[in-house]
Design brief:
The protein is of the alpha+beta class. Helices cover about 30% and strands about 30% of the residues.
């Protein structure tokens, strides 16, 4: 077995575009600065998967300079691809636990859909995916409403 940890953060863009978290639009006009759709959940989860399998990090496979990733759906183009790479390396996903960190972005109403999205992309059962959210009680960039972040931890098991 192996454990991987992932983290991702993006600044709010100030432009009116959708904020996508866990494959769900959680705000219509509060998007983030990113090459892809900027889905911090997908990015943190993919980073955890790649790390657990000792394959590298997001920058190795999906660099910010890659223009083919412009506006890409991170759940498919990044997380789905990372899961395929991990399986090709001989690993199966045991479970995934994600925490979203944001001051006022409300995750609760979208939690079940986000978990389903993650389970579908990862091709695992729903009970293998946990998604939580927290604030920073006004501290740091998230607390100042400057951006959003997510952490993820994954357990891989030998296939």
């Amino acid at each position: 077995m192996r454990v991987g940890f992932g983290f991702d953060a993006h600044a709010f863009s100030g432009m009116e575009k959708p904020l996508v978290v866990g494959g769900e639009t959680v705000h219509e006009r509060r998007g983030v600065d990113a090459t892809s759709d900027g889905d911090v959940v997908a990015h943190a989860a993919a980073d955890a998967l790649l790390g657990a399998a000792a394959l590298g990090d997001l920058g190795v496979f999906y660099p910010a300079t890659d223009q083919t990733m412009m506006g890409a759906d991170s759940m498919v183009a990044i997380l789905g691809d990372a899961a395929r790479r991990v399986r090709a390396a001989g690993w199966e996903i045991g479970n995934l636990d994600v925490t979203v960190i944001a001051q006022s972005v409300r995750i609760g109403p979208h939690r079940d859909a986000m978990r389903r999205n993650l389970a579908n992309v990862l091709e695992v059962d729903l009970d293998q995916v946990s998604l939580k959210a927290t604030t920073t009680d006004g501290l740091g960039f998230a607390g100042r409403e400057q951006g959003i972040s997510a952490t993820a931890i994954v357990l891989l098991e030998s296939a």
